[in-house]
Amino acid sequence: MDKKKLILAGVGLAIAVLFISAAVIGVKMYGKVGWPSDLEFQKGVGYVTWSQKGYMSPSSDESMTKLSELGGNWVSILITWYQTTPWSGDIHKTDKTPSDESVVHAIKKAHELGLKVMLKLHLDLLDKSDGSWRGEIGATDEKEWKDWFEKYEDFINYYAKIANKEGAEMICVGTELSTSAGVKGYLWRDLIKHIRKRYKGALTYAAHWDRYADLRFWDLLDYVGINAYFPLSEDMAPTYEELKTNWTRWVEEIEEFYAVIGKPIIFPEIGCSSADGAAIRPWEHVPRTEVNLKLQEDYYRALLDIFWDKEWFYGLYWWYWGTNTNMGGDYNRGFSPQNKPAEKVIKEGFSEPVRR
User: What is the pLDDT of residue 38?
Assistant: First the structure.
């Protein structure tokens, strides 16, 4: 072998060693572990209210019954507490938080209908006048961070107690709290360990689509949760084929992440509005554009066709289903698939078998 070939061979070996070393470091960083034996594929829908008694109404019982007829096996029940601004740290209930009685009623109704329950805990802002959102919630020094985490843990434990009593099968311990999750991972690790001592069900966290790879506590959770609102098109009305093609980049990214993390992945939120431009920034409501039921339908179908048979994919929760049976409809631009063609896509998709 000549000198040039020897050099090239040495470079190749060095690259291979670096790659393997990086993989090992990644496994140690993320905590790659074996999967629990009781994992279950989740055919889910996100059930929501922003009122104290919303889950207790006859309309809600009827709406959850319709949700169960989609053929799913899980439902996430939204519970939202608030703080005033990203820096205020005043975590509390408001009149938009469902009462304990309302939450318990929803859990019991879901179980009566044969659905398993994820309590999906949100912390949101009361004052968004400057364009702030929950992902910016944070603190300015260590004492403030400590105080915030103590209050946040109290919030989670409050519902862990209800979940234990009512047999709710999973808790989503946070949703898109990107700043705290990204910069204070060690405090999140402590919080999750504390919750494990109080709650014996499954745990996940719902990361924003562009921040999931930054988190360092996935090894302590049962499922990686990604709110998968990946931008798919700059077109106002992309076709099904375009949507499916444009998922390629994001699928590759998720699969590279999975190769390191080795944990089952779910989408605690997924969906888009039924309006022109909804695939540009799927996480946003787009009320000023024209209704486009076909775009929402194609978005749902493309996602199911791509992810359903991935070995690492363990389900999703369509965002969202409301307590009013008349929600949605042909002239609605919002997220809900209710009374729209997308509702039929869900039912068809949930009828498909899963390999795991």
Answer: 76
Residue 355 belongs to a domain = no
Is this prediction's pTM over 0.70?
A: yes
Both 6 and 119 in one domain: the answer is: no
The residue type at 42: Q
Structure tokens at 351: 């009828």
Crossing angle of helices 142-166 and 185-198, rounded to 10°: 30
Residue found under tokens 């311990």: 173
- For residue 157, the Cα-to-chain-centroid distance in whole angstroms is 20
Angular region, 326: left φ>0, alpha ψ -120 to 50, beta rest: alpha
Residue 240 lies in a domain: yes
Q: What are phi and psi of 129, to 5 degrees?
A: -65, -25
Q: Which helix (H) or strand (E) element contains residue 269?
A: strand 265-270
How far apart CA 149 and CA 272 sit, in angstroms, is 32
Q: How many of the other CB atoms lie within 10 Å of CB of 185?
A: 15
Coil, strand, or helix at residue 352?
A: coil
Question: What are the residues facing 317 on neighbouring strands?
Answer: 44
Average pLDDT for residues 255-281, to the nearest whole number? 97
Alpha helices in the chain (DSSP H): 3-30, 58-68, 100-112, 142-166, 178-183, 185-198, 240-246, 248-261, 293-307, 341-350
3-state DSSP helix/strand/coil percent for the chain, to nearest 5?
A: 45, 20, 40
In this structure, are residues 347 and 71 in contact, taking their beta carbons and an 8 Å threshold? Answer: yes
Give the number of residues written for the chain. Answer: 356
Domain that holds residue 22: 1-30
CB count within 10 Å of CB 6 equals: 10
Residue from 223, 245, 232 nearest 316 by CA: 223
Token code pair at residue 29: 């960083």
Q: Are the beta carbons of 123 and 136 closer than 8 angstroms?
A: no
Same domain, 50 and 15: no
Residue 356: band (very low, low, confident or very high) from pLDDT cuts 50, 70, 90? low
Report strand pairing: 42-48 vs 170-175: unpaired
Same domain, 146 and 235: yes
Task: Tally the domains of the chain.
Answer: 2
